[in-house]
Design brief:
The structure holds two protein chains of two kinds. Chain A has seven helices and 17 strands. Chain A is of the alpha+beta class. Chain A folds into three domains: 58 residues, no CATH class; 149 residues, Sandwich (Immunoglobulin-like); 75 residues, Alpha-Beta Plaits, CATH 3.30.70. In chain A, strands 1, 3, 4, 5, 8, 11 and 12 form a seven-stranded mixed sheet that branches. A five-stranded antiparallel sheet of chain A has the order 2-6-7-10-9. Chain A is globular. Helix content of chain B is 69%, strand content 0%. Chain B is built from nine helices and no strands. In chain B, α2 packs across α3 and α7 crosses α8. Chain B is globular. Chain B starts with a helix and ends with a helix. In chain B, 33% of the residues are buried. The chains are: A alpha+beta, B mainly alpha. At the A-B interface, α1 and α2 of A face α1, α2, α3 and α5 of B.
């Protein structure tokens, strides 16, 4: 390698040291949203003015056109929920319809100090809708905070994990969510991370669900209805802890096992109203469950765990 | 029929957004290499992202999406430079931080000077090829030049800079 090549490599390393500023994600996300909004209206030949006009004004002008586009878009994407949308208007623009892989989906952006300020609920004709709102300093956030949604069965649950959040004012809405005939329980799930909020909704029957992320204002729109597809009618065997109060003890227990057992869930006790337990795994046969139990007992002596048969529905 | 067209467009938009997200650091770095400060570089990335989303239907072949996106970005960066009052310093590709320049060896200073002596097109070519590691086909797309011209120009530049790279390194 001659000196010039060395010098070139040196310059290149120097050049590549440039780091992305923190604001880069926000700038890109905003540009994408703004671009989508304007593209939709331009397609409709409504917009003939130039782009440099006041952004706030344009937002107002385009809101109705954008809402129409979103409505049509949702119709295409999901005929199942078409009838509902006609009745319940949702504010904001569609960012995406969540696609679940292995029961998990995620999205949103990095925030700090967000309040999950409220969850509005409606149930009609056997369908339930929950709209989760994101606030920052008392005003609606433009984009949703980073979230993860996990779906699991037996019982059917949806777990919402939202980061960059300091408050869950929406806890006041939990009683109303419980009134829905589709829901058996809803509760905050304790976490050791003080900038993350989690809450779980437990459903009474097999469900089908669709979740949409909206922006300006930010929300997650969760629509759920009883599923016509019967869940596999098989017994299964749950490896679980004893019932315990919701608190740090439960969170520490979960943290201890979470890397080896990603399927874990915190579920409400079947008998005591304020107690919960940690489900570590669910297996198809009793021997497999006992094997897992033995493995756990060897790893964590003293952990109070047992196998429980969960009846087929 | 309408539905199918719509899905194609949605797929394209999804692919475009993924491309932007995947290459965001590269986009920012290229923008920075023209405008040389964080705020302007962020503005350039924002403007380019916006323009790409709004004009996505103008892209004829999705295979050229990355070149097309970078071309928009460079055009936005050059626009910013043109708007600056001090036209004398526009547009010039930056190829390394000034913070470390004090520690440059003599060989690096010589090379830096030699690159300064190139014309603007040559600077852009060497920037995209040796600093951004883009493929020759991608560079041809960005610069809107035939592939053969990109190759011969780069060959000439490397010779002029006395960078003794093997053939294979020039044309890989």
């Amino acid at each position: 390698m001659n000196k010039r090549v060395q010098a070139l490599n040196h310059m290149k390393m120097d050049y590549r040291e440039l780091m992305a500023p923190e604001k880069l994600d926000e700038v890109i996300n905003n540009a994408i949203l703004e671009g989508r909004r304007d593209k939709q209206t331009m397609t409709r030949k409504i917009n003939s003015g130039e782009r440099k006009s006041s952004q706030a004004l344009r937002r107002v002008l385009y809101a109705s056109a954008a809402a129409l586009v979103i409505f049509v878009g949702s119709l295409n994407a999901s005929p199942m929920f078409a009838s509902k949308l006609a009745e319940i208007p949702i504010l904001g623009q569609l960012v995406k319809i969540l696609t679940f892989t292995d029961g998990k989906a995620s999205g949103g952006m990095v925030t700090d100090g967000t309040d999950i300020s409220g969850i509005s609920t409606q149930t009609q004709n056997g369908k339930a809708q929950f709209v989760i709102h994101f606030d920052q300093d008392g005003a609606s956030q433009d984009l949703a905070s980073a979230y993860k949604v996990v779906y699991a069965q037996k019982p059917e649950t949806l777990l919402f994990e939202i980061s960059g959040v300091r408050m869950l004012s929406a806890i006041e809405d939990f009683e109303r969510i419980k009134e829905s005939p589709l829901v058996t329980a809803v509760y905050p799930v304790v976490t050791l991370d003080d900038s993350t909020v989690r809450f779980m909704i437990v459903f009474a029957e097999a469900i089908s669900y669709e979740i949409r992320e909206m922006a300006s204002p930010a929300s997650l729109v969760v629509e759920v209805e009883t599923s016509s597809e019967a869940a596999a009618a098989l017994d299964s065997y749950r490896v679980r802890t004893v019932d315990m109060p919701r608190g740090e003890g439960l969170a520490i227990l979960e943290e201890t096992i979470m890397n080896q057992y990603p399927q874990r869930r915190i579920l409400p006790s079947a008998t005591e109203s304020d107690l919960f337990f940690l489900e570590i795994g669910q297996l198809d046969s009793e021997p497999l469950a006992v094997e897992m139990l033995d493995e756990l007992r060897a790893l964590y002596p003293g952990m109070e765990i047992f196998v429980e048969k969960t009846e087929a529905r | 029929m309408f539905g199918k067209k719509r899905n194609q467009l949605q797929d394209r938009e999804a692919a475009l957004i993924e491309l932007i997200q995947e290459h965001k650091l590269q986009l920012y770095r290229i923008a920075y290499s023209y405008v040389k400060n964080e705020q302007d570089a962020l503005d350039v990335v924002q403007e380019a992202t916006y323009k790409a989303i709004v004009n996505q239907e103008k892209l004829k072949e999705e295979a050229y999406m990355k070149s097309w996106l970078i071309r928009i970005l460079i055009n936005c960066a050059v626009d910013v430079l043109r708007k600056r009052e001090n036209v004398a310093q526009a547009p010039e590709v930056w190829v390394g931080s000034s913070a470390n320049q004090g520690m440059d060896t003599e060989a690096v200073m010589d090379l830096r000077e030699a690159i300064q002596g190139l014309d603007e097109t040559q600077k852009r070519l060497i920037h995209l090829k040796y600093f951004e590691d883009l493929k020759l086909e991608e560079i041809a797309g960005i610069m809107e030049m035939p592939l053969g011209t990109v190759k011969s120009q780069l060959h000439r530049i490397v010779k002029r800079l006395r960078i003794e790279l093997k053939e294979v390194e020039v044309f890989e």
